[in-house]
Specification:
By secondary structure, this protein is of the alpha+beta class. The chain has one domain (about 5-75). Helix content is about 30%, strand content about 15%. The protein has three helices and two strands. It has helices spanning about 20-25, 40-50, 70-75; strands at about 5-10, 55-60. A two-stranded parallel ribbon has the order 1-2. The longest helix is centred in the middle third of the chain and has 11 residues, at about 40-50. The two termini are about 20 Å apart.
Amino acid sequence: MREVKSLRLLVTSRCPYRCFYCHKEGMKSFVPELLAPRDYRYPTNLFKINFGLEEVTLSGGDPFSRKDIWEIVRAVKKEKVF
């Protein structure tokens, strides 16, 4: 089985900026966040146990536009991937 060392989780598509490299693809609307902070633990734990995950990157439009970003960080950190 192939090892997956890093995982990128998109936490939001919202962003207050209009950067060329993000919006050149025609992004007109944003998808609302559907996952609660605790929901990020499951994929992190799954990839850690089954694939040897060592690194998680939280990304998206502007992750700090989520009011619960620190709760997400704490939830992922509980899985001790870092």
